[in-house]
């Protein structure tokens, strides 16, 4: 493992899995708009003939054995939750249609989570961006690894917020967004939101595949590593750094794309005080990176106690 900061080689101090030991705080955003009741693949036969009809009360009648996308989603979410260690991890649920109308704050009570998920029914339009904003607000309250996992099956047509505001807030709170697009969605926008927040975008045309998608996300979220390295630059005026990682394992050489990261305001304040006092930590600045298995970087700065020496 090698680290470069602003093309300068840095000494690696440690690399350790963190999501195995530190709490993971997951916000699960679930689309329960009216379209989550309808799966076109199950509503026509091979010849393209409709298998659904309206009864005397003008209620849509589905074919025998029909499973609505919302039911597949609820089943996948509950299995997703069960893959985490709720003795240390926390789950919050955000359900939405035309408004964010279902919110369960972070909890380790699986029975409460399942009850909330089971209570969700498909109805209304889609306010996806508003739901993402609410999800970020819920997740950012907690400590540890923070992640938002969101499902939608349609185009946003009700939100007060814009997707760019979602990205801005998520990056400010250092929360990656994993998005699952189902069916008729704006793939470009959803992918952009995920990538811009250092998350990942998944697409499936079939609700029956949601369980597989959620299990893949579970593996990703539980494969975060903490990398601590020695930064050669403690200048408070230079709080933006380019970070590049490289790996050489069993003759396989991998280099991540250089990512531009900004130190948090509190870290810049500490660095400025050190400069003013002409004192520096004995071993330089210790920078900490959270590394996702896919190569995505979440960057933080860790303050360490050290005996200062005169410059």
Automatic annotation (TrEMBL):
Pfam family, one: VWA
Residue ranges of every copy of the VWFA domain listed in the record: 25-217
Keyword tags: Membrane, Transmembrane, Transmembrane helix
Membrane-spanning intervals of the chain: 280-301
Protein name: von Willebrand factor type A
Organism the protein comes from: Niastella koreensis (strain DSM 17620 / KACC 11465 / NBRC 106392 / GR20-10)
């Amino acid at each position: 493992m090698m680290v470069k900061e602003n093309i300068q080689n840095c000494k690696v101090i440690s690399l350790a899995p963190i999501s195995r030991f530190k709490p993971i705080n997951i916000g699960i955003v679930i689309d329960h708009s009216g379209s989550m009741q309808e799966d076109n693949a199950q509503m026509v036969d091979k010849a393209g003939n409709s298998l659904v009809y309206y009864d005397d009360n003008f209620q849509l009648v589905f074919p025998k054995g029909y499973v609505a996308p919302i039911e597949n989603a609820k089943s996948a979410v509950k299995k997703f939750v069960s893959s985490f260690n709720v003795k240390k991890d926390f789950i919050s649920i955000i359900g939405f249609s035309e408004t964010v109308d279902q919110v369960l704050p972070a909890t380790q009570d699986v029975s409460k989570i399942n009850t909330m998920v089971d209570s969700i029914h498909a109805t209304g339009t889609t306010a996806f961006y508003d739901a993402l904003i609410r999800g970020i607000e819920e997740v950012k309250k907690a400590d540890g690894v923070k992640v938002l996992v969101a499902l939608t099956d349609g185009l946003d047509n009700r939100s007060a917020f814009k997707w760019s505001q979602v990205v801005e807030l998520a990056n400010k709170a250092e929360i990656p967004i994993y998005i699952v697009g189902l069916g008729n969605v704006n793939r470009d926008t959803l992918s952009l939101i995920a990538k811009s927040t250092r998350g990942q975008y998944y697409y499936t045309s079939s609700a029956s595949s949601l369980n597989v998608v959620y299990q893949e996300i579970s593996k990703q979220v539980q494969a975060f590593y903490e990398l601590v390295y020695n930064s050669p630059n403690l200048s408070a005026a230079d709080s933006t750094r380019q970070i590049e990682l490289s790996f050489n394992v069993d003759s396989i050489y991998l280099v991540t794309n250089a990512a531009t990261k900004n130190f948090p305001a509190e870290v810049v304040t500490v660095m400025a005080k050190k400069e003013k006092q002409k004192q520096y930590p004995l071993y330089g600045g210790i920078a900490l990176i959270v590394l996702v298995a896919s190569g995505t970087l979440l960057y933080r700065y860790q303050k360490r106690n050290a005996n200062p020496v005169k410059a």
